[in-house]
Amino acid sequence: MENKTYKRTTVTSALPYANGGVHIGHLAGVYVPADIYVRYLRLKKREVLFIGGSDEHGVPITVRARKEGITPQDVVDRYHKMIKDSFEEFGISFDIYSRTTSETHHKFAAEWFKKLYDEGKLTEETTEQLYDEEAKQFLADRYVTGECPHCHNEGAYGDQCEKCGRDLSPTELINPKSTISGSTPVLKKTKNWYLPLNEYQDWLKQWILEEHKEWRPNVYGQCKSWLDMDLQPRAMTRDLDWGIPVPVKDAEGKVLYVWFDAPIGYVSNTKELCEKEPEKWGNWEKWWQDEDTRLVHFIGKDNIVFHCIIFPVMMKAHGKYIMPDNVPANEFLNLENDKISTSRNWAVWLHEYLVDMPGKQDVLRYVLTANAPETKDNNFTWKDFQDRNNNELVAVYGNFVNRALQLTKKYWNGVVPACGEWLDVDRQAIEEFKNVKIKIEENLEQFKFRDAQFEAMNLARIGNRYITECEPWKVWKTDPKRCETILNICLQLTANLAIAFEPFLPFSSKKLREMLNISNFEWEQLGSTDLLEAGHQLGEPALLFEKIEDEVIQKQLDKLEATKKANEAANYKAAPIKDTVSFEEFEKLDIRVGLVKDCQKVKKSKKLLQFTIDDGSGTDRTICSGIAAFYENPEELIGKRILFVANFAPRNMMGIESQGMILSAVDADESLSVVTTTKDVKPGSQVG
User: Fold this and answer.
1) Is 237 marked within a binding site?
2) Is 223 one of the annotated binding-site residues?
């Protein structure tokens, strides 16, 4: 598509769902890239509006409220505040962060629906849906669980199986159950209003497939796969009691579908902001209905169809709205080689990170951008987090800045020295970094944030190489004037770093400006060699980043391991019962109680423990058991009354004759524990 010059840009980021916190997957997929882009546009002096807000309607919120015995409003109030506070502390620089339970939004979304209804843009259909006769209500997707027809996971939801990832409808489930009453639901007729996507298919094909071939391959490809099929009408209302009431006759007990209501939140939040600060933002219509405005949606790949097909059709049907010019959706970020899952608590939550890693907002921003899942799913590991901090932020960026500032403090009391004549080594370094502005801008304009940040870090690499090659700490002794030139160039590079990293690492850029004693730089100055005048007094140098030690990382790994064990325990199911045996066969086993007199590890064996047991016969019995891995201190078993099989034939194990078998129970984590009695039963007592 031919590039158009726009007067302003409206940037939206997917509304996080207010039934939990924000995790690193959300940050990497949506909020960090959106914030980088907006900060860059502001630095370029472009007119831009950054819209955020909480999505506060829908079934998962009612499910949580029911589970906790509170109201849905209580749920969204709690999480809206948590999410908003976390974003503010993390530096996500929204111009407004509002919510879909606001009065402005309720009125605006209802009016949008009513306009489409009055103009005949919606169709009315009666369909059969699952109904809970005990609870006397229709069941939304998440209120139905059952067996997945594809992978046979017994805990699949009515909209998706979290085990195999397939999208489902409630009627596909095998043996469906209501999560409200536990009863088996029945099919019952109900009326809802539908958006006829099929009527817009030809327009969508032209607009996306022909006019927006520059979109990311994952976005374009997913849209094409939908448009290659015949689009079907999609319900825009639901039988629920939590949400925006459908504003038409005969619609009692129905609310707007959350995916109709939520994207309208971008517009209603804009309206709310413009009405509060009209002198700054003007009227809301110019941000959404003016052809000179560029609209960009930042989302994750699971929201592509809603932002590229359904919401555009809603806007097209309305008749006044501009279409998104780009939708740079990211793929998914995994955590320690496993899919991030809120239901399994397998995530790094932003509000917890901000407590565990105080002052390290930029470290996470840097790592998530360096690992951004821009073209394919990527993986976050705490080891990589540590390595990138220690080997890049500390050893490259921070190291160069610290050397430049500390040497200036040492030799000139923190005053910028004058720059003398350039040598070839100086010209080479300057030549390398003078085009950094063009490189960063080219990548940011194409939404290649990972590459743009790499170019910013390359400035620090150039600086480190230059200062190491020039060795000003040695030159100072023989040629102070030459040392002045070297450090002047180093300081100019340092100032450039403060500008280059401003969109990516705003906290450390602010800290670096304070160390340079400069309140602000202009983006247009990036690449200049005269940012700091000779004679300028610098501030006090300090470490820009600090090394993260192994024990800090281990705490995070331990937290994840505890989560994994908790999930295993919650999902534990006993192994299937073995084939039936007759009582006569069971009686052949002679199971007895033995008192452990001694227990020790068998030399040269990692598996075996040697038990000396009083079996009540008057002669001690020796039994070897392969459970050493589960008893680091086997002495703790001495004095225990354990169960053993007495009538097994003796076996030779590591040169020891073992006279029986110790009975052990296998736990959910596959660890073993010897079976003991609850009372002091006499040794030799039979079990049966």
Assistant:
1) no
2) no
